């Protein structure tokens, strides 16, 4: 019941504003000049004091990007993007030291307070010794890396994690402190020239998170990153790299917001996951970038490449995503199942309301024997929203006994939206078994009637039914995220019924 | 022309240039214009390559790289006809109508050679299969010499008609591009059983234009059974008006490469379309079923069930799209494709697709891929049935399930025979 009350409250609180994360934080920013060329790439690299190999790596990516064409196969429509009309580096001007909260601009901390990020860890960062080892209120703590526009501003619980040998820091910091690890894994899952947006990201990425879980370690807390695009005319290009060594486990959460603006902003992230023998990575995303207004003006272009490699035997990578924001989403978190008996999972809820467009799905590459994958995708379209599931299941000749199950369900609310399903199934292994099913329907009148009869408003009833529709995916989310996701579903569908 | 015989698209374009004053209807300006338009499209696009999304899984390079001559002007000697399934049949040899082999007397509707009745075809030819739609349609439009013309007046029950296509091996590669027009007036009914047989290095590239008017029912059974040297690329465009039904059932088993492409549009309320089929391939063969169902009116229903069985080093493709327009409320669309792999060297690629712009719809698709079910095999073997026989029973059951939807008994028997023929040949090979 509290969750329901909370949901209703949240809905009421956003009744006017719609998007409550639409505020802009007024802090001094440092920008590189607008536009994209080799000098900007060099500037970013120099600004971050990067080693020569990384600059070379970036320049190779940039050279590749220049030869590539923007992909046009996705079922999304948008005006051409002028890549020269954006800032590729924007950082809060304050010299930020992740070890001391005093050095962080108070405006920035206010931002996170507004976002409701569990930055209770601020205390620890502020120097309250020992507080980090005792979780407050008996809850499992969440370690947070906060990325503001281009750079990481604070990482909490670092010390506690350090005791376990876990590295959790911004990727720029990792380049300085653990160059050998970064160099060993960076670009091995998503190569620089993988696709247009990944190449762009490789050339100009400014920050992101780096996680390394050593052999046999079970990460004692959820790791989390909050991304926020704040400054005007900026793109955000973060790069996340998570390596789980043999027998380790990590659960990683990612959340994103941006201010309300009339213009469109580009977000082209790359996430790479590597799981060795018996390792498990659970990666959860609640994506709530600004979706644009009710007329489809403004909003984030979310063009993201996410891919995980199950390199080791019995390794497992599980993607869970709740995509409620962004004007356009282009995102296919994938698993390369190399290790024998490795497991890939993809659980997704994507909502498009107003003029939002989402083209999202997954790719499961079954390479090793007895690899298994599960895909559960729930698409919800309302208003003029267009929602596409696009996925690939490829079973190689050596993936004996491989198994895939895919379920894609679409829900339509209103008669101006669209729901599309484009699965590709490629099998060259006789002993593999692949099953795919997809359905499209709208909310049944009798379900609505049943709820209305019991005193729920039309909107509450739709919320309840939609949450039920998404339950299989939401239950995969960690607790705190699941509650937040439920609220978001409700908010995203604001104004789509009645 | 001193240059060597051109291959692929260039070869066909050169053929068109050479033949255009001699092709049927060469003195009819409307047809000349249509063919010229098709030539422009074909010249611009050539044969589709795998970079084209709809051809991602089927490589036409063996066709594009080959050089095909025209068929012989007149085939001499006796021609073995397949066993008749119906009293009336139209026979085409190398794509040309043969009245001497056909039995069409006493039919209460217009049926016969398209080439001999071009004036009747004028309003309809190219109306559904437009020259700019698909490169293979353009190729067909540019070079077709004949085909069947069926025109059923309002309310007529045309009964059962057989359409037979035979390709005769002239000892060199050749190509033919028949164009078939089928029109059913309001409330008319017709069942066509189509058989394609043939041998030699040949390309059979038929295009169908099918118009089903209000309340009419057209049942179309197809058995593509040419030998493993033949390329069979067929394209069907069908439009179904209010309350009309188009039932297509295709067995594809035989050619080296089969592409069975069907575009059906439901244009009036309560129209229905059923597309079912079984496609089988053995060593060195490739089968491809590609369907596009366009729900353009409310209250329509569509059903698709396709089965694929692959043996040896073979490849199977299924691509099926259901498109639901915003006006097509209360659409009921269902699609199922299942593939059975019998060999380690077989590959199946499947792409079921939904594109939906109406909210009050019920659409679903399913796809399964796998080997014979181990539990079922065990069940049969535990009851004393030898393994090979148990396998045969399961494969047969898998294939026969697809035919169950066919209500016409003659057609069902013919289709079942075609399935069993293929399977018994496989059994012998194994």
UniProtKB/TrEMBL annotation, chain A:
GO terms for biological process, alphabetical: iron-sulfur cluster assembly
Chain ranges of the SUF system FeS cluster assembly SufBD core domain: 227-469
Top-level lineage group: Bacteria
Alphabetical list of SUPFAM superfamilies matching this protein: Stabilizer of iron transporter SufD
Positions of the SUF system FeS cluster assembly SufBD N-terminal domain: 155-219
Family affiliation: Belongs to the iron-sulfur cluster assembly SufBD family.
Name of this protein: Fe-S cluster assembly protein SufB
Gene field: sufB
UniProtKB/TrEMBL annotation, chain B:
Pfam families (alphabetical): SUFBD_core (PF01458), SufBD_N (PF19295)
InterPro entries on file: Fe-S_cluster_assembly_SufBD, SUF_FeS_clus_asmbl_SufBD_core, SUF_FeS_clus_asmbl_SufBD_sf, SUF_FeS_clus_asmbl_SufD, SufBD_N
Source organism: Neoroseomonas oryzicola
Top-level taxonomy: Bacteria, Pseudomonadati, Pseudomonadota, Alphaproteobacteria, Acetobacterales
Signal sequence coordinates: none
Family stated for the protein in its record: Belongs to the iron-sulfur cluster assembly SufBD family.
Top-level division of the source organism's lineage: Bacteria
Family annotation (PANTHER family): PROTEIN ABCI7, CHLOROPLASTIC
Protein name: Fe-S cluster assembly protein SufD
Biological process per Gene Ontology, one example term: iron-sulfur cluster assembly
The encoding gene: sufD
Positions of the SUF system FeS cluster assembly SufBD core domain: 175-398
All copies of domain SUF system FeS cluster assembly SufBD N-terminal, residue ranges: 14-156
């Amino acid at each position: 019941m509290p969750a329901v009350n909370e949901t209703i409250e949240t809905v009421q609180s956003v009744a006017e504003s719609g998007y409550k994360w639409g505020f802009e934080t007024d802090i001094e920013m440092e920008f590189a000049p607008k536009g994209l060329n080799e000098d900007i790439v060099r500037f970013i690299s120099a600004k971050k004091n990067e080693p020569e190999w990384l600059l070379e790596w970036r320049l190779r990516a940039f050279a590749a990007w220049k030869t590539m064409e923007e992909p046009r196969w996705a079922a999304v429509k948008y005006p051409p993007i002028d890549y020269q009309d954006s800032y590729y580096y924007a950082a809060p001007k304050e010299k930020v030291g992740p070890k001391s909260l005093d050095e962080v601009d108070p405006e920035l901390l206010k931002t996170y307070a507004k976002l409701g990020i569990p930055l209770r860890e601020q205390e620890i960062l502020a120097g309250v010794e020992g507080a980090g080892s005792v979780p407050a209120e008996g809850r499992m703590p969440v370690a947070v890396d906060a990325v503001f526009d281009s750079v990481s501003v604070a990482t909490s619980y670092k010390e506690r994690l350090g005791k376990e040998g876990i590295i959790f820091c911004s990727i720029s910091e990792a380049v300085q402190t653990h160059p050998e690890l970064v160099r060993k894994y960076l670009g091995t899952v998503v190569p620089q020239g993988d696709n247009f947006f990944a190449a762009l990201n490789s050339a100009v990425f400014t920050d992101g998170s780096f996680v390394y879980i050593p052999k046999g370690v079970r990460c004692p807390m959820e790791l989390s990153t909050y991304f926020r695009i704040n400054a005007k005319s900026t793109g955000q290009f973060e790069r996340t790299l998570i390596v789980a060594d043999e027998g380790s486990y990590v659960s990683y959460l990612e959340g994103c917001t941006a201010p309300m603006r009339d213009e469109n902003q580009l977000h082209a992230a790359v996430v790479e996951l590597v799981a060795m023998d018996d390792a498990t990575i659970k990666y959860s995303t609640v994506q709530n970038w600004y979706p644009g207004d009710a007329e489809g003006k403004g909003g984030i272009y979310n063009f993201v490449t996410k891919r995980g490699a199950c390199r080791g035997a019995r390794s497992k990578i599980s993607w869970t995503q709740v995509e409620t924001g962004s004007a356009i989403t282009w995102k296919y978190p994938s698993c390369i199942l190399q290790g024998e008996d490795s497991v890939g999972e993809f659980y997704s809820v994507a909502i498009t309301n107003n003029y939002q467009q989402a083209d999202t799905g997954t790719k499961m590459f079954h390479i090793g024997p007895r690899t298994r994958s599960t895909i559960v995708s729930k698409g919800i379209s309302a208003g003029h929203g267009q929602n596409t599931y696009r996925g690939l299941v490829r079973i190689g000749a050596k993936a004996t006994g491989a198994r895939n199950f895919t379920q894609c369900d679409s829900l339509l609310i209103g008669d101006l939206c669209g729901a599309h399903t484009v699965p590709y199934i490629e099998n060259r292994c006789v002993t593999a078994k692949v099953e795919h099913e997809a359905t499209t329907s709208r909310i049944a009148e009798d379900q609505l009637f049943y709820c209305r009869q019991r005193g729920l408003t039309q909107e509450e009833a739709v919320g309840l039914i939609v949450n039920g529709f998404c339950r299989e995916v939401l239950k995969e989310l960690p607790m705190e995220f699941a509650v937040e996701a439920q609220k978001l579903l409700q908010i995203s569908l604001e104004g789509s019924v009645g | 022309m001193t240059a060597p015989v051109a291959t692929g698209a260039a070869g066909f374009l050169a053929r068109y240039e050479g033949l255009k004053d001699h092709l049927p209807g060469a003195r009819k300006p409307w047809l000349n214009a249509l063919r010229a338009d098709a030539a422009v499209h074909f010249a611009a696009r050539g044969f589709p390559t795998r970079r084209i999304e709809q051809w991602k899984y089927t490589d036409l390079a063996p066709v594009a790289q080959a050089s095909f001559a025209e068929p012989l002007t007149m085939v001499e000697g006796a021609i073995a006809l397949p066993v008749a399934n119906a009293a009336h049949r139209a026979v085409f040899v190398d794509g040309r109508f043969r009245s001497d082999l056909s039995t069409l007397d006493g039919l209460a509707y217009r049926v016969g050679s398209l080439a001999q009745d071009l004036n009747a075809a004028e309003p309809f030819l190219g109306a559904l299969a437009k020259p700019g739609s698909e490169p293979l349609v353009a190729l067909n439009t540019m070079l077709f010499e004949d085909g069947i013309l069926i025109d059923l007046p309002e309310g007529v029950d045309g009964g059962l008609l057989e359409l037979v296509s035979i390709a005769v091996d002239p000892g060199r590669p050749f190509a033919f591009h028949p164009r078939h027009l089928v029109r059913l007036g309001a409330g008319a009914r017709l069942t066509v059983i189509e058989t394609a047989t043939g041998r030699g290095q040949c390309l059979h590239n038929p295009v169908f234009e099918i118009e089903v008017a209000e309340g009419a029912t057209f049942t179309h059974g197809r058995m593509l059974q040419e030998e493993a040297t033949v390329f069979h690329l067929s394209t069907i465009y069908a439009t179904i008006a209010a309350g009309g039904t188009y039932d297509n059932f295709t067995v594809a088993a035989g050619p080296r490469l089969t592409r069975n492409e069907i575009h059906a549009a439901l244009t009036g309320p309560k129209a229905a379309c059923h597309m079912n089929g079984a496609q089988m391939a053995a060593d060195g063969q490739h089968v491809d079923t590609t369907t596009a169902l366009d729900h353009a009116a409310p209250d329509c229903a569509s059903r698709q069930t396709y089965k694929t069985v692959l043996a040896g080093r073979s490849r199977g493709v299924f691509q099926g799209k259901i498109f639901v327009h915003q006006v097509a409320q209360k659409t009921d669309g269902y699609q199922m494709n299942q593939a059975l792999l019998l060999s380690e060297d077989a590959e199946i690629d499947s792409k079921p697709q939904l594109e939906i712009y109406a909210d009050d719809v019920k659409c679903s698709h399913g796809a399964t891929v796998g080997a014979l079910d181990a539990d079922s095999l065990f069940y049969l073997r535990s009851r004393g049935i030898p393994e090979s026989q148990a396998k045969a029973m399961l494969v047969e059951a898998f294939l026969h399930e697809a035919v169950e939807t066919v209500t016409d008994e003659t057609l069902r028997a013919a289709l079942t025979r075609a399935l069993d023929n293929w399977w018994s040949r496989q059994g012998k090979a194994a």
